[in-house]
Design brief:
Blueprint lengths: L23 H15 L8 H15 L4 H9 L4 H11 L10 H19 L5 E6 L5 H13 L8 E7 L2 H9 L1 E3 L8 H7 E4 L5 E4 L1 H4 L2 E5 L12 E6 L8 H11 L3 E9 L13 E3 L4 E4 L6
Parallel strand pairs: 1-2, 1-7, 2-6, 7-8
Antiparallel strand pairs: 3-5, 4-5, 8-10, 9-10
Length: about 300
């Protein structure tokens, strides 16, 4: 024999115990697709979470392994399933009036001059970027309506965007479990939520609140079709899932989208980094305003 016979390569060990084989290679492919589609970094410590969320997709599709699933989502015909994969792996944690200091800042520092200008014909625009199921933009809308009951007669709009179409649709419906309103101020709960459902265990957001908000699908690392500037941008607990360079790029895209006296609200564990740090200045807890004299 002139050459040693090669031993067959053993099958890769599954890194998560369960009904479907899930190897390091499977996880790496899923993480790469998620990063390419949504800019989200999926560390190896999240392998069990990825398995548990995506195993449901394998069952629904009748697939026998994650290898087959990876082949599907990477294929030209897998566009729809890639979207479902991203939605399954995206964390959607939100609630009404989460981080209330931001809504206090909006109410006390940002809205009064904007509403005064709106009554003379000016437009007011807010953006909830990464709006999840809608509690954040609806909280902003209630804050506006509390100061300006005539908001429907003024040029005031809130854009609410998210990468997950399921969350966007839930926001459009404006229906939530009754317990979801617990952290909303009591007067707001009574005024802008209506109980419904067989056991009246759900609430629907009032029409005048929903009328201020437009829901759209948007990937923050993709193209942004919006042309005008915003008087306030909420992007909270979203970029924390991105790698540092992607975070810096997103902040840098937000900076020129802010009106001269606008406000950017970010998550409690986030900080503006990269070139945008020279264009924005802190104005409260995880709140930023355009730096006077900064080019944009």
């Amino acid at each position: 024999m002139t050459a040693l016979a090669r031993r067959p390569k053993p099958a890769e060990r599954s890194i998560v115990e369960g009904e479907f084989p899930f190897t390091d290679d499977d996880f790496s492919r899923i993480a790469a697709i998620l990063h390419g589609e949504a800019g989200i970094a999926l560390p190896e410590s999240k392998a069990t979470l990825a398995y548990s969320r995506l195993a449901k997709r394998l069952r629904a599709l009748g697939l026998a392994s994650f290898k087959d699933y990876c082949a599907l989502v990477a294929s030209a015909s897998g566009v729809s399933e890639r979207q479902k994969m991203v939605a399954a792996l995206t964390t959607n944690v939100t609630r009404f009036f989460r981080e209330p200091h931001h809504f206090e800042h909006l109410r006390e520092r940002v809205l009064p001059p904007l509403l005064a200008a709106a009554r003379h014909g000016a437009a007011v625009r807010l953006w909830s970027a990464g709006c999840s199921s809608g509690q954040e933009p609806f909280s902003a809308a209630m804050t506006i309506l509390d100061l300006a009951p005539d908001a429907a007669e003024l040029d005031i709009k809130i854009l609410a965007t998210d990468i997950d179409p399921n969350m966007v649709e839930q926001g459009r419906q404006g229906v939530y479990p009754g317990r979801a309103t617990q952290e909303a101020p009591a007067p707001f709960r009574h005024r802008w939520f209506k109980a419904q459902g067989p056991g009246r265990d759900q609430v629907c957001v009032a029409d005048e609140v929903r009328a201020l908000v437009a829901f759209r699908e948007l990937n923050l690392i993709g193209p942004w079709p919006m042309k005008g500037r915003f008087d306030a941008i909420f992007c909270r607990n979203v970029v924390i899932y991105f790698e540092e360079d992607t975070q810096a790029r997103v902040w840098n895209r937000f900076a020129p989208m802010l009106a001269p006296n606008g406000a950017l609200y970010i998550g409690h564990s986030e900080r503006v980094t990269g070139p945008a740090a020279g264009q924005l200045t802190p104005d409260g807890i995880t709140t930023y305003r355009p730096r006077p004299g900064a080019s944009s």
